[in-house]
Amino acid sequence: MNAIRQLHHALKINRTLVHYGLDEFLAPTPLARFRPLAKLFSLSLRRKAKDKSRGERLRLALTELGPIYVKLGQMLSTRRDLVPPDIADELAKLQDQVPPFDSNIARSIVEKQLDTPIDELFASFNDTPLASASIAQVHEATLNNGEEVVVKILRPGIRRKILRDMQMMHSMAHWAEKYSSEARRLRIIEVVKEYDSTLAREIDLRIEAANTSHLRHNFECSDLLYVPKIYWDYTRVKMLVMEKISGIPIGNIEALKASGVDMKALADRGVEIFFTQVFRDSFFHADMHPGNIFVNVSNPQEPQYIAIDCGIMGTLDESDKRYLADNFLAFFDRDYRRIAELHVESGWIDADVSIPEFESAIRAACEPIFGKSLAEISFGHFLIQLFQTARRFNMQVQPQLVLLQKTLLYVEGLGRQLYPQLDLWQTAQPYLKQWVREQIGPKAMFEDIKRQFPDWLHKAPKLPGLLFDNFHRIGQSLNQFEQLKAQFTELERHKLEQQYALKHAFIGGSLAILSGISYLAVPHDWWPAAILGASAAWFMIKSLWPTK
């Protein structure tokens, strides 16, 4: 039954793509021969939005397919080096211009979540959405104390739609890994599982509220990033209320320039925010498309970022952070051999791979982009080279780093729009070097001792008792070891006795058979048979009372 539903959903996806004429994207590719088949299974020759551009048709199709596909379009909208401008411009509208749902439904959800009439909750509630995205939409409101807030409300039925799409993605991932070695190398199943868990967190707005509060705490009093306040009394699974912010959307380049914003400073500060989140806090905003980022231009020379929509956040453990930092620093120093060694040490590629050969492949991919601004780099070509290198050396994709990779693409895409002359690597280098110094230098050692000293002080009076208990446990363990050793010796003795008995029984049985054969062969000459029989009896008796 599940397979039938998934087949139906796959046909619906195909029909939507064909209806919007998106099969034309296959024309310049080897997949062009499948266009007639795709049209056949669309079960209709009707075309939608024939008079619209290809970018508009792609945006409308992704919107119709649902939130997972909308998020894919959001990410592509930031990659103007990979996506043609006409398509990128249209996909950018997916960031906050998805068609809204009815305001009466929005009011009903709020009242059910808080179990209170909406007129008692707010002094005012604007029925016209401020923004509408793939997962939720946002309404302006005013609290009874006069504070201006925004109310974020989940789309009705969104859980069911996401579950359906994720079931399809899981099936496609299993199918891909079954028939494709490349899919197995990319660990598609694990990547889809990670995406599934990310979406599950995103549709519980209490988790987004907690993420927002944590990010706000990390950048408290910072002039780099401002995160709005959460109103916990009004926050539930399907809705949250937070402080209303004002700023210029980061995608509105003309408005930023008109406000006198130092675009280089804005790009540099964006890079600093990203690396601070990753390496200082191990907690980073993983959905940094332009619809979620605004700019406070009150100080144009030191513009402050404003981040919203913290539903998708990434975390890294210490080993991942150290590995990434070492790779970045090796890249800054053009130490490609060290990069190759790090990949082997981390287990990302097999230990039997030739280090010099892998080093040469990395150098060929990285050297052309080193020290160049974003405007001078073809990241599309660079990514193709990296994928070819990964495939050649059977490099394993790390699912825990997928969110980080996506976020880095967002950062690079934003940097390209804000200040194309930005040298992303050179800008990041000081932050990474400072982080490494803080992690492994004398200061880091002192900070570690200072952090653990109160715990040591608390445990100091207990040390004699702890030492006595540990010595007592060691003594008990030694006694148990001696007992186990005696039991093992006894088992070995029984084993040897059994082997001894079986050996003598086998010899005795063999002699008994020979005795019978001898007597039957020469019945008048009985004494050889008698000797053999007596020997057989002796060996049989020995098998019953084995001794060594």
TrEMBL record:
Residues 93-343 form the ABC1 atypical kinase-like domain. CDD domains: UbiB. This is Probable protein kinase UbiB. GO terms for molecular function: ATP binding; protein kinase activity. Is probably a protein kinase regulator of UbiI activity which is involved in aerobic coenzyme Q (ubiquinone) biosynthesis. Pathway: Cofactor biosynthesis; ubiquinone biosynthesis [regulation]. GO terms for cellular component: plasma membrane. HAMAP family: UbiB. The gene is ubiB. GO terms for biological process: regulation of ubiquinone biosynthetic process; ubiquinone biosynthetic process. ATP binds at L130, A131, S132, A133, S134, I135, A136, Q137, V138, K152. It comes from Kangiella koreensis (strain DSM 16069 / JCM 12317 / KCTC 12182 / SW-125). Its EC number is 2.7.-.-. Pfam families: ABC1. The active site is at D287 (proton acceptor). Keywords: ATP-binding, Cell inner membrane, Cell membrane, Kinase, Membrane, Nucleotide-binding, Transferase, Transmembrane, Transmembrane helix, Ubiquinone biosynthesis.
